[in-house]
Amino acid sequence: MTTASARKHAAILDAARELFLRNGYGATSMDDVAARAAVSKQTVYKHFADKEGLFTEIISGDVAQDRAESHALIESMPDSTDLAADLREFARYHLGNVMQPHLVRLRRILIGEADRFPHLARLWYRNGPERSCAMFAEWFTALGKRGLLDVPDPMLAAQNFNWLALSIPLNKAMADTREDLFTPDELNRYADEAVRVFLAAYGARSASSGKAAT
Asked: Residue 207 has what pLDDT?
């Protein structure tokens, strides 16, 4: 892709994201995207076969950016030497990322239009919550083998970890469109408490004493 083509590709994505977030998926047309990006409709279709493909790349790009930004922590988690601290760091990052205003708006759109566009809702779920939980399950399997966690069902533990961190602030954000619902300190408190509860449930136990392993 040439530099000029790459610029147009990025402009189309930026325009589409803005329009999807403002108007919803169903109310946004490829003509709208072309006009907002200041390119021809033919140029839009040269880069994206259809609206679904354009929307798919936006979702996939957001997920890929999230994974790239947290790459070091993701890679190091199975080898953690301070599990509580590392889980708190990640939970804070994860919650802060999910609660970004544009991602909250995208989630609302997908939920609101799931009946009309169920394939898009499934696509988002596969690329977001499902992929995250699969990654957490891999962590917890490795940490269980090291004796740091007691996780008979790593996927269930992963889902519990995910929603312990996200559920309270995210559920409120689904029903309240204000973008200043929580301060960073408040989000960190939810993340830290999620890790405390998670480790109370899944932290490795001494078979003889029942206390958490050190």
From this structure: 29
